[in-house]
Design goal:
The complex is a heterodimer of chains A (about 130) and B (about 140). Chain A has helices spanning about 5-30, 40-65, 80-100, 105-125. Chain A contains four helices and no strands. The mean pLDDT of chain A is about 95. In chain A, about 75% of the residues lie in helices and about 0% in strands. Chain B has helices at about 5-25, 30-60, 70-100, 100-125, 140. In chain B, helix 1 (about 5-25) packs antiparallel against helix 2, helix 2 (about 30-60) packs antiparallel against helix 3 and helix 3 (about 70-100) runs antiparallel to helix 4. Chain B is elongated. The chains are: A mainly alpha (about 130), B mainly alpha (about 140). At the A-B interface, helix 1 and helix 2 of A face helix 2, helix 3 and helix 4 of B.
């Protein structure tokens, strides 16, 4: 597995764990009232799991698995690396924005959007028949 | 496709059908409030998480030649915990929303713990498989 995929997948697994932990607290609170402040974490729960875990896991695996170019390389990997960097920065900003009520959620989402675009531009030509 | 992977993927497909069917109820005014969270979680945890877990177990670099998926016992434990937790939620949450009651509340707490333990078990099991080229087994090293 290439280094970028390593980073993306390991980060995704950490988001999975944290996202499920937050979700568990919210659900326990729903059932028992044990963690009354847990609802504050709902935005983080969604962002961590949908974008951090599922989205990033898919990106990491796609970078690894997609057909390579002739010469067995993955092309200019900088847009892919940039996308992982921006995605995680975006998630952090969305989390800080939703948790502390700071006006940076929009910018976090914008970073995530740029990350998605960057990866799509990088990966598009690798969606091809193997060997082509 | 190994047996455990087939169980994850087929279960995922069942949840896909179940969640989107429940989505019809969740879209109604009368039942929406009770079924909306269940619908989303049957989709996200039931369908998406199961399919990702299953394909990851199958496709990630092998742990060793002798134990490519590291621990199938742990993967089965994860499967059971995730499904018992999720199905418990699917039953308890609408009833808790509609009727209240301590029993359903405690069932939700148990559901939460089981689902978290499932995620923990999965991460523990696959983490060493997220690596570069395969390392030699003990026998190969010796």
């Amino acid at each position: 597995m290439p280094r970028l995929s390593l980073w993306a997948v390991r980060l995704a697994l950490l988001y999975l764990l944290i996202g499920f932990a937050i979700g568990a607290c919210i659900l326990i609170n729903k059932g028992t009232g044990a963690f009354p402040t847990a609802w504050r974490w709902l935005g983080a729960h969604r962002e961590f799991l949908l974008i951090g875990w599922m989205g990033q896991f898919a990106l990491g695996i796609a970078y690894w698995i997609f057909p390579r170019y002739r010469g067995n390389h993955r092309g200019d990997t900088r847009p892919a690396a940039l996308s992982i960097l921006l995605l995680n920065a975006g998630i952090a900003m969305v989390f800080i924005g939703t948790f502390w009520g700071l006006p940076i959620t929009l910018w976090g989402r914008a970073l995530e959007a740029v990350a998605a675009l960057s990866f799509a531009v990088y990966a598009w030509p690798r969606v091809k028949p193997t060997g082509a | 496709m190994p047996t455990i992977v087939r169980w994850y993927v087929k279960t995922a497909l069942l949840y896909l059908a179940l969640s989107l069917t429940l989505g019809v109820l969740a879209a109604t005014e009368r039942l929406g409030r009770a079924f909306e969270p269940t619908y989303w979680h049957l989709f996200a945890v039931g369908w998406l998480t199961h399919i990702i877990f299953g394909i990851a177990l199958w496709m990630l670099p092998s742990y060793t030649r002798e134990r490519p998926r590291r621990s199938d016992a742990l993967s089965w434990a994860v499967y059971l915990a995730l499904n018992i937790g999720l199905l418990l939620r699917a039953v308890a949450e609408p009833l808790r929303i509609a009727n209240g009651g301590r029993t359903w509340g405690l069932a939700l707490a148990l559901s939460a713990i089981l689902q978290f333990l499932a995620a923990l078990g999965f991460v523990i099991n696959v983490w060493p498989r997220v690596r570069g080229p395969r390392r030699p087994s003990r026998q190969e090293k010796a």
